[in-house]
Amino acid sequence: MLQILRHKAGSIIVKVLFVLLILSFAVWGIGDIFRNRGQSDTVATVADQTISLQQLDSQFRSLAQSQQLPLSVAQQLGLPRRVLDNMISGMLYDRLAADLGYDLSNEAVADAVRVDPRFRDPATNQFSRDRFLQLLQSAGTNEAAFIAYQRGQMQQQQVMRALFSGAEPPQALVDPIYKYRRETRVADTITLRNADQSNVPQPTQADLEAYHKEHGDKFQSPEYRTLSIVLLNTDEFAKDVTVSEDEARTAYDKNQATYQKPEMRRFDQVIAPTKDLAEQIATAVRGGKPVQQAVDESGNAAVKLIPVDFTAKSAMPIPALADPGFTLSEGQATDPVQSPFGWHVLVLTGIQPSRTVPFEEARAEIETQLKQSKAADALYDAANKFEDALADNVPIDKAAQEFGFTVTAVPAVAQDGTTQSGQPLPPLPGQAQILQAAFQLQQGDVSPMGTIDDKTSFIVRVDGIVPPATEPLAKVRDEVAAAWTEQKQAEASAALAADIAKRLAAGEAAADVAKAVGGQYAESPALLRDGSNAGALPAALVRDLFAAQVGGTATAETPGGRVVARVAKIEPAKPDPAAEAAVKQDLRRGLAVDVGGGLDQALRARYGVTIDEAVLARLNYQE
What we know:
Number of helices: 24
Helix content: 40-55%
């Protein structure tokens, strides 16, 4: 902790540790800044423009953060190279746009930003500059950089749209691909359930022992940990805290606004379904009738009388009623006011004038707040000293005794709160938070102070770790028997499916075969090659059916069973303008990608692109 460093900063041990830390930086990458001083940091050159290592690092970090990837993982996935290629392509298209005389106006860029849904206030659905700047900050960029990026993206899109608009696939290509994709297969299917294979024998002791030995990883106990826990509660510290009158009065004077109470008003509120009814009741009240009588005489069951207790003007449940209600004299009624709930009439029934709460009235509350604040400070200070003692290898029991803390010993427990006996851990305050913290530590480690609620904190030490282990057969015998039986039933289903496939290939009626073996017969829909309308049929089955002719069979595993199918009918593609248009659009995208790739290479050759692999190799993210 920082507290430890503050206490120990003057010691020779810590000075040595800082020297080692600096040396480790020199070994692991920070030293590159010094070793490479004077060397170029240009990672790529595009025509007369350059991309620096810092620019690439910034964009790489931003992309990795947006994808929630650790930097080291993102580097292993080759993300730095892909980011660099995108930056180069962007500069090439910008250069091409300039050569073509295409210049995007500032207003066009601003319009695009204003209509971007990411920057709209959810409450108003309008562009919010605050939200815009907040999102840019969270993405690790600024307004100028984003506008420049947006301009580049829009220019690239316009240039690409102009260049690729003619990339239209010929009909001679569309037709055969459409026919291939839209050809269908209809199949007779027989579904088997593993659980229906009742001819599987009961496992012998030898069967169970062999299965348990071979599949021990299926019957592992969880990891258990024994813990020592110290709970810290501000209420305990508050018992020894005192607050003087001067302290309370100083707090009162500093927070005068808190003790200014606004005028409060109480109302009888009538809600009527129509304006005429509301006006009728308001007129009756002004004529001297009690509100309840006026409501009863309205003769409409939909009219409701809902009182509003003493409320400040700013806290009125319906803001439109605030001004009318707070201009009334006692006993008066407002004109009808409409809301989504109907037409409202308020009748003022009481006023509490604005006032300043005197010190003596507020004193008890102030003292309670100051005690809690002092207690929290005392708790934090004691916890820091306690952690420092533990860092100095003082045993936790001894350190706790010194500071008056109680240590709770927790027997071996799994992260889900289950003990080795299989019973849940006795009730423990903040159990979920404590166990989560404990299972992130190594044996002997002590956690930083964690929070359970606004009054309770904890420190936990891992005293011992019991690693996962294969449970003895005697303890998991039922589970092993069930797993062995499931495996044998699956094997029986597979053998039966192979036999069914032979019978179907020989021409037997699928419905008759299904009835004979206890399977479920069904005729499939006209299956598409991509399996998009296959429903529960496995993708592997659909693939194999499209590799077969009429009468051909295929089998596949399903969750809890097997399915066997025979091709009953092959139907050529039927005319479908929408489906054909979708195929054409897919081909159009493919052509655009191909043209784009060729254009990118041509632009690289035209403007000149060089990449300094040695500079690129200096990116090294270790986490």
